[in-house]
Specification:
Helix 1 packs across helix 2 (21-38). The chain contains three helices and eight strands. The protein has helices spanning 8-19, 21-38, 111-129, and strands at residues 46-47, 55-57, 69-70, 73-74, 79-85, 91-98, 133-135, 142-144. The longest helix is centred in the C-terminal third of the chain and has 19 residues, at 111-129. A four-stranded antiparallel β-sheet has the order 1-2-5-6, with helices on both faces. It has a two-stranded antiparallel sheet with strand order 3-4. It has one domain. By secondary structure, it is an alpha+beta fold. It is globular and about 50 Å long.
Amino acid sequence: MEDNETSLFEEFVAHHTIANKEKLNHILDWLKAIGNKYGAQAHLFRPEGETADASALPPKGKERKPHYTESGKIKANNIRLYCLRANENVVFLFNGDIKTTQYPQDCPNVKTHFKLANQITKSIDNAFKNNDIVWNDDFTEIECDDDFKIQL
């Protein structure tokens, strides 16, 4: 973001490596499973759109593998990593935190991450529509000018 050399996702990992390591590891396990086994199928992401098609991990359903466990029991993981699932090959990863309320708009921890994810998603969608960002031939990578910046 702006002139920050650290990505939103790197900030997420750095913070939760210290604060919520097991919850973070569950998210990283999901990213590995999506990347190596499943692909970014829509049902593997939580719909988190308010003004755009933002999503989050982990998916709904604590029984889905990989599981999150506490004290040896399968539990729901309340950490949220906000993202944009562009297609089954490409996912833009943002930031997130521990969700403590039913709705992200009401949660002091995730509200700003949720809102920012929706803003970035909307801007990326607009950049695709304006051909500022374009897909390669097999829709596995994106291309843009070196000086391209997302407008929020």
